[in-house]
Inverse folding.
């Protein structure tokens, strides 16, 4: 019943009358439709034309194939109007025959029950097991054990009795509570054997960040690169004519400008450069050293002298002094018994306590020289009179000496305070500290060690003298020179024994008991310490060798500078891991990189007053194939006595001061012709010397009469500028030290065992402007002077040669004159004879006549 | 070509001269005795300064022109000789 066939219509009552389809008369509920003939509709069209109700569907009616159309009364207004027309035959048929459709459905439904199903009651069959009883059994719950029944009874009277509760601690009563603690049961731990993880390959990225300098605070930046010419363009331009012309025109003015600058500096402010720097402390005219403090050790039986002085590199006001008995060799032998009772000491004096030394380091015999280790000032190495090296480790007492407050000692009145007013800082009794290790007696030096130095921590030396880099960062090697004509290099790290030591010796060493309070830093060295290499200063075939008294290596001046560096180092060591000196073995096995072109040459001063410049690197002797020490590069005898000071200037690495006998000499490393400056003989012997630490042209010389000479190269170079009396006896050691820009001290040790501390005045400690450059200029002039002298020497020699040559020529000339005369004479005589012979032969003269003729002639 | 090199060598051999360079009118270096980064920096900055100085001089008097520029600083003296197409720059350390 498709809707497109339905054409709703409104039929007026007039139309209904015409067509006999009046509502409720012709068209009823039972028969809501009416068949209308097409002809009737057409007649209606003719009669009523547009007024006809069928007019809207006129076309449909015209096209209608059949004769009769079906008109249905739409009582319910299903299609909107009261009648509708079905426009097709099919629709008509469908409308007329709709009841067939539900009938069909009903029929379809009735089909199923039409398959006759006869009910048969089920016949019982034997049960076939399909395996389900197993499951049933598994699922069923059965009692595994017999049920236990309890019967609990209680007296009836107790039921309902009043109950009294009280508190009780659960843990105090046994079995009052039962707990079920959790415990990890391994049965229930699951081990994850497989894991589902996603992976992705990404390119390697690196995150870095930098701090950029924000020169102009703006938030926009530009990145750019400059325009440049390529090489060909540059060449092309270079060849162009315009460039040549331009340069020709312009170079003249540029050269004038350049030359103007060369001639004179027009912008210099003459007034400004005249004046010295202002802001001086103290009086400018005051040039004397002022007495600050003095220390004497009172407790010894025999008289002492001070052999070596060293300031503590870090702690203010602490100075160490080595004391030896003041006896000659014979007297030593004579009093040897008495001397054994007396300990040989290094004393630590502090400014705060002039009576009692702070620490006393014991040694087996008198110490003649010692040094603090530059990497760790708690390690001290000293050279003994018997040729042994003694090592101390005062790390355990370091805090004791550090806590010494110098306190108020900036004033010079400390010595005037009575003793009971001085606050006792710590234990007032001085501590005796035993030495840590001594070197082997057989393998070391045989005679007194005259000088000892720590090698700086920047390099290391091996057995042959080659230089390697030092990875351990600490000074671990020493160099000593001794009166037995050898210079030895020592290493404080445990040596790998090349030859296995025979057991009996080992046992002996083990049996030596070390006192418990001695630190074991150098235990491996004790009594078995051998030098790394030995250099013998031989004079060639003669038996006498050079006897060295002092050494100067190239990097000694490290000790003076960088007190801050020391502090930083020591702090770092405390804060970080353990002290590297406790673990000396760690540094050995590493392969070290050799340092090329390192200057292995050094200066040695000898007992005879010579200054030798030699090399410590061993070279292979072509004949024997062994490694021999090289011959010294240069040797000069300038001093009349033993050289007791060789020192590099703290300002110039290659200027060396040597003091010995009665004069002073200054040398420059590399100049082989002679000293730059050699002073004339002084009235008194010079016994010690030292450069000033702050002024490049100033040095201090101590004399044997207790005077100190201060030389200033800028003022006078032939004599000292100033002489000051310090004490009554010979000055054995001078050591200045800078604590701050305003305070500089000089420690002067004398022969009677007193250590004087004096303060250096402002004028002597403060360099003037350009002093460094002026002094270096002075040295350059001296070098040029030496060269000139050399040149003159050469010229003179040549002149001399020439003069000799001329002389020779003159002599030969004279000689030849005489010869000529003699020759002439002989010729004449032979001629006479010849004449005679001829005359005889001619018979002109008879023989007798000839005889008489001869007589007549 | 040899003349150019010779002139530049002559200037360079004066006492105290640190470096010499020839720069074109746009500030691109042509010849130099210093390293590349320094050259480029000097060339760029001095070129601009020279242009400014030149324009200053000509603004004051249009018939005047810049012939030489010398900049003296604490450490050295920079000399610039300008031209229509090129710039010659010399840096000297006036000895004290």
């Amino acid at each position: 019943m498709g809707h497109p066939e339905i054409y709703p219509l409104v039929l007026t009552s007039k139309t209904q009358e015409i067509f006999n389809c009046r509502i409720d008369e012709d068209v009823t509920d039972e028969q809501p439709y009416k068949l209308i003939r097409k002809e009737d509709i057409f007649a209606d069209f003719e009669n009523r034309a547009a007024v006809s109700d069928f007019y809207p569907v006129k076309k449909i009616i015209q096209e209608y194939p059949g004769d009769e159309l079906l008109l249905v009364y739409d009582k319910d207004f299903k299609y909107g109007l009261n009648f509708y027309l079905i426009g097709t035959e099919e629709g008509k048929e469908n409308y007329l025959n709709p009841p067939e459709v539900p009938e069909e459905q009903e029929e379809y439904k009735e089909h199923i029950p039409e398959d006759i199903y006869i009910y048969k009651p089920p016949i019982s069959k034997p049960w076939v097991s399909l395996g389900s009883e197993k499951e049933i059994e598994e699922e069923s719950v059965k009692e595994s054990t017999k049920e236990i029944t309890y019967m609990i009874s209680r007296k009836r009277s107790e039921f309902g009795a009043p109950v009294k509760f009280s508190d009780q601690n659960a843990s105090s009563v046994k079995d009052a509570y039962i707990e079920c603690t959790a415990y990890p049961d391994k049965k229930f731990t699951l081990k994850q054997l497989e894991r589902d993880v996603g992976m992705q390959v990404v390119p390697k990225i690196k995150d870095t960040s930098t701090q950029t300098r924000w020169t102009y605070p703006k938030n926009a930046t530009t990145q750019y690169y400059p325009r440049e010419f390529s090489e060909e363009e540059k060449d092309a331009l270079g060849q162009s004519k315009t460039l040549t012309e331009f340069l020709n025109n312009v170079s003249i003015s540029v050269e004038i400008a350049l030359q103007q600058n060369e001639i004179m500096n027009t912008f210099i402010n003459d007034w400004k450069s005249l004046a010295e720097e202002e802001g001086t402390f103290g009086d400018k005219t005051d040039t004397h050293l002022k007495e600050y403090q003095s220390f004497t050790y009172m407790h010894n039986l025999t008289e002492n002298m001070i052999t070596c002085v060293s300031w503590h590199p870090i702690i203010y006001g602490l100075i160490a002094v080595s004391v030896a008995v003041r006896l000659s060799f014979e007297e030593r032998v004579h009093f040897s018994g008495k001397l054994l009772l007396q300990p040989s000491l290094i004393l630590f004096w502090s400014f705060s306590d002039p009576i009692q030394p702070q620490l006393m380091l014991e040694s087996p015999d008198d110490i003649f020289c010692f040094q603090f280790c530059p990497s760790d000032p708690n390690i001290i190495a000293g050279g003994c009179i018997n040729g042994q090296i003694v090592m101390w480790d005062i790390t355990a007492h370091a805090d004791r000496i550090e806590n010494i407050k110098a306190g108020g000692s900036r004033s010079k009145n400390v010595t005037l305070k009575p003793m009971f007013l001085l606050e006792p800082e710590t234990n007032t009794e001085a501590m005796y500290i035993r030495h840590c290790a001594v070197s082997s007696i057989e393998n070391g030096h045989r005679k007194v060690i005259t000088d000892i130095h720590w090698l700086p921590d920047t390099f290391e030396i091996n057995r042959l003298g080659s230089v390697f880099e030092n990875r351990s960062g600490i000074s671990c090697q020493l160099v000593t020179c001794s009166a037995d004509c050898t210079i030895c290099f020592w290493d404080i790290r445990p040596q790998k024994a090349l030859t296995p030591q025979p057991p009996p010796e080992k046992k002996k060493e083990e049996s030596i008991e070390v006192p418990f309070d001695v630190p074991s830093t150098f235990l491996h060295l004790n009594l078995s310490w051998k030098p790394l290499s030995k250099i013998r200063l031989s004079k060639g075939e003669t038996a006498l060798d050079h006897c060295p008294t002092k050494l100067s290596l190239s990097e000694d001046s490290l000790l003076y500078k960088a007190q801050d560096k020391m502090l930083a180092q020591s702090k770092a060591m405390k804060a970080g891991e353990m002290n590297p000196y406790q673990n000396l073995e760690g540094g050995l096995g590493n392969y070290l990189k050799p340092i090329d072109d390192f200057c292995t040459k050094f200066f040695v001063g000898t007992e005879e007053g010579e200054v030798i410049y030699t090399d410590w690197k061993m070279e292979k002797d072509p004949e024997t194939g062994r490694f021999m020490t090289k011959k010294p590069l240069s040797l000069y005898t300038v001093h009349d006595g033993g050289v007791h000071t060789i020192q590099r200037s703290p300002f110039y690495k290659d200027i060396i001061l040597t003091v010995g006998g009665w004069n002073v000499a200054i040398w420059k490393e590399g100049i082989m012709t002679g000293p730059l400056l050699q002073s004339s003989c002084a009235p008194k012997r010079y016994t010690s010397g030292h450069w000033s630490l702050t002024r490049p042209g100033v040095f201090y010389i101590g004399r044997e009469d207790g005077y100190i000479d201060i030389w200033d190269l800028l003022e006078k170079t032939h004599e000292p500028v100033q002489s000051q009396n310090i004490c009554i006896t010979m000055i054995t050691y001078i050591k200045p030290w800078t604590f701050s820009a305003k305070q500089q001290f000089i420690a002067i040790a004398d022969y009677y065992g007193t250590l004087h501390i004096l303060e250096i005045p402002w004028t002597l400690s403060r360099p003037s402007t350009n002093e460094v450059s002026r002094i270096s200029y002075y040295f350059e002039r001296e070098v040029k002077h030496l060269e000139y002298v050399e040149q003159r020497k050469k010229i003179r020699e040549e002149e001399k040669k020439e003069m000799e040559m001329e002389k020779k020529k003159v002599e030969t000339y004279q000689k030849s004159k005489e010869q000529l005369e003699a020759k002439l004479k002989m010729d004449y005589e032979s001629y006479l004879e010849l004449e005679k012979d001829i005359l005889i032969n001619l018979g002109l003269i008879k023989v007798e006549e000839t005889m008489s003729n001869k007589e007549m002639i | 070509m040899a003349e150019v090199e010779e002139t530049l060598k002559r200037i360079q051999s004066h006492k105290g001269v640190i470096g010499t360079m020839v720069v074109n009118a746009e500030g691109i270096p042509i010849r130099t005795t210093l390293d590349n980064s320094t050259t480029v920096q000097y060339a760029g900055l001095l070129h601009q300064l020279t242009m400014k100085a030149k324009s200053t001089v000509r603004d004051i008097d249009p018939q005047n022109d810049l012939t030489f520029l010398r900049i003296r600083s604490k450490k050295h003296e920079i000399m610039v000789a300008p031209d229509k197409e090129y710039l010659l720059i010399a840096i000297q350390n006036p000895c004290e």
In short: Chain B has two helices and five strands. The radius of gyration of chain B is 14 Å. Helices of chain B lie at 2-12, 36-60.
